[in-house]
Structure formats: C-alpha cells, structure tokens
Design brief:
This protein is an all-beta fold. It contains no helices and 10 strands.
C-alpha cells in the first residue's frame, strides 16, 4: 500500500506491504502527496509540493522494495493551492492521465442564443 506520512517533518510518500509484515520504504525525496499506483504495481505516481506530477519505478518482492529515482512528468495547474484531491487518474498502462486542472483563468466561452428559429420540415 502507499500512503503519506509527516513523521519526517514534511509529508512524504511511503510504500509498505499490506498485510504486513514488512518495513515501510520512502518513495518521495522532497515531499509529496496523493499517491496513485499503476495497474501492474511497477510504478507509483504522486503530486510533488511544487504541483509537478512525479513518477517512480518500483520492483516489489517479498522482503523489500527497489525504488527508482523520482522523475517529474509535467506540472499540474491546481487551484486553489492545497486543494484536496483527487487531482489526477492514471490509465492502467501508466501512459495516459486524466487531470483535474484549470484551463483558463477568467475566460468564458461565448454563448449564442437563437430566438424564433424554425426547424426544416
């Protein structure tokens, strides 16, 4: 399972076998939240404190977790800062993302209203 913990002084992402026993392993390096697994458990995605989507490769076995280096994928535009998730969803293969984001700030699409129109017979 994956979870966030603040025991280091900042929120970090960890994984731990469930049900145990087994040690927890820190995944994030500079904070993070909202962990989401890839369907085959080979990768974990999370949101960094600077709102970048991060990816970490994982190899899980009975006694330990081998953790790759976290890689930034792309920035997310989340408003207001600190808003609770979920902010994104991951496709089963980990190649596509559905992101809850802001498209434009203060922009509105035009609205056209047609009155007294007649349908074609």
């Amino acid at each position: 399972m994956s979870f966030g913990s603040i025991e280091s002084g900042t929120v970090e992402i960890y994984v731990q076998p469930f049900p145990g026993p087994g040690p927890k392993t820190r995944i994030s390096t500079k904070g993070g939240g909202f962990p989401v697994w890839r369907a085959d458990s080979s990768e974990l995605f999370y949101l960094a404190p600077d709102d970048r989507l991060m990816a970490v490769s994982l190899k899980l076995n009975d006694k330990k977790v081998e953790v790759g280096t976290p890689k930034a994928l792309f920035p997310l535009r989340i408003r207001p800062p600190g808003t609770l998730g979920p902010h994104f969803a991951v496709s089963p293969d980990g190649q596509r993302f559905l992101v809850n984001t802001i498209v434009g700030e203060g922009e509105t699409a035009p609205l056209t209203v047609i009155l007294n129109w007649k349908a074609k017979p």
